[in-house]
Design brief:
Elements (H helix, E strand, L loop, with lengths): L5 E4 L6 H15 L8 E5 L5 E5 L6
Parallel strand pairs: 1-2
Antiparallel strand pairs: 2-3
């Protein structure tokens, strides 16, 4: 099973202008990627970006 990808921006309780600034930074970070299928993008308030594989479900 594949997932379309997930972007997580922390912290979540931000003013609108800060949310926009962070989201623009995330878009800049993911723009060079071919796709985000089965990826998780973690973005922190210090502008660090970590892209990891989506964890596989365990049965």
């Amino acid at each position: 099973m594949s997932a379309p990808g997930l972007i997580v921006i922390l912290p979540a309780n931000l003013e609108r202008n800060r949310q926009i600034t962070y989201f623009e930074a995330v878009l800049d970070a993911i723009e060079p990627l071919d796709d985000l299928v089965n990826k998780v993008v973690h973005f922190a308030s210090d502008f660090t970006v970590e892209i990891t594989e989506w964890p596989q479900a365990t049965r």
